[in-house]
Automatic annotation (TrEMBL):
This is ABC transporter ATP-binding protein. Signal peptide: none annotated. One of its GO terms (molecular function) is ATP hydrolysis activity. One of its GO terms (cellular component) is plasma membrane. Residues 67-285 form the ABC transporter domain. Residues 1-42 are annotated as: Disordered. PROSITE patterns: ABC_TRANSPORTER_1, ABC_TRANSPORTER_2. Keywords: ATP-binding, Nucleotide-binding, Transport. The keyword Cell cycle does not apply.
Amino acid sequence: MMRWFRKTVKSEQSDDVSAISYEPPQEDHHDQLDEAEPGQEEIAATNVSTTEPGDIEKSVDSSETILSVREVHRMFPVGGTELHVLKGINMEVRSGQLVMLKGRSGSGKTTLLNMLGGLDQPSKGEILFCGQPLHQLSDDKRTILRRDQIGFIFQAYALLPLLSAWENVELSLRMAGVPSSQWKERVTQCLELVGLGKRMFHRPFEMSGGEQQRVAIAKAIAHRPKLLLADEPTANLDSQMGAQVMAVFKNIIHTEQVTICMTTHDPTILEVADHVYEMVDGKFIE
Ligand SMILES: Nc1ncnc2c1ncn2[C@@H]1O[C@H](COP(=O)(O)OP(=O)(O)OP(=O)(O)O)[C@@H](O)[C@H]1O
């Protein structure tokens, strides 16, 4: 099992002692993570292999382009005029990357993320998801593609409050059409992967914000999506819980071969990204 530690280091941009880095594990304390009181957990993420003994560990094919975005614009009709929100976005996301979109409120990050996940369509431009032209697919085809290949995580954890962590994750498998014979093993595997092996039967109100967000991650990866899109996943969390979520993200990139694209306002987590796109007024700046 692997644990990631958050370390305070001096930011390159300022004298703020705020930036964080993650270090590999020193020793195994899985039980401590699961049994710690909310808010007192160590920053950790389990590294539960998704393969059976004897299986060949799947490797991330970094040569595969997951998203290719070309000259994307998005205009919204507002009060008789057009609000030009995205103004020519170009980006590429490769398999196994953790890509972050940063920018001020209103700069267009969520608008772009919605399009990367096929929830919205560009007014102009192209978005290819694993070579498929998202911008040309019908609503029905985009719905199927989202259900099978994309996972979403939001700032507000989007869990059903009356269901346990286990039931929340199971529900996403049910909705994705995964055969019921696979639910038990996969739900257990995903909750262990996010460090909640001993909190599987807690309901959301019995969990900390960080734990709820980790249930949301388990839920989003349960159907084995290729791409995980996360909109401000750490915005409601304190820095320690935010670091736990980032450690889980780093972990699942390797164990689940998932690619992650997320938005953030938080400069302290940017250093774990493979690539950061900075958005200003609907455009990326260098
Ligand atoms: N459906 C819509 N109709 C009209 N305007 C919209 C629509 N969706 C987004 N906008 C506008 O587009 C701009 C960018 O919004 P967006 O939510 O993408 O920004 P953001 O960078 O994600 O901000 P935040 O960090 O606050 O979430 C805002 O001015 C917003 O009001």
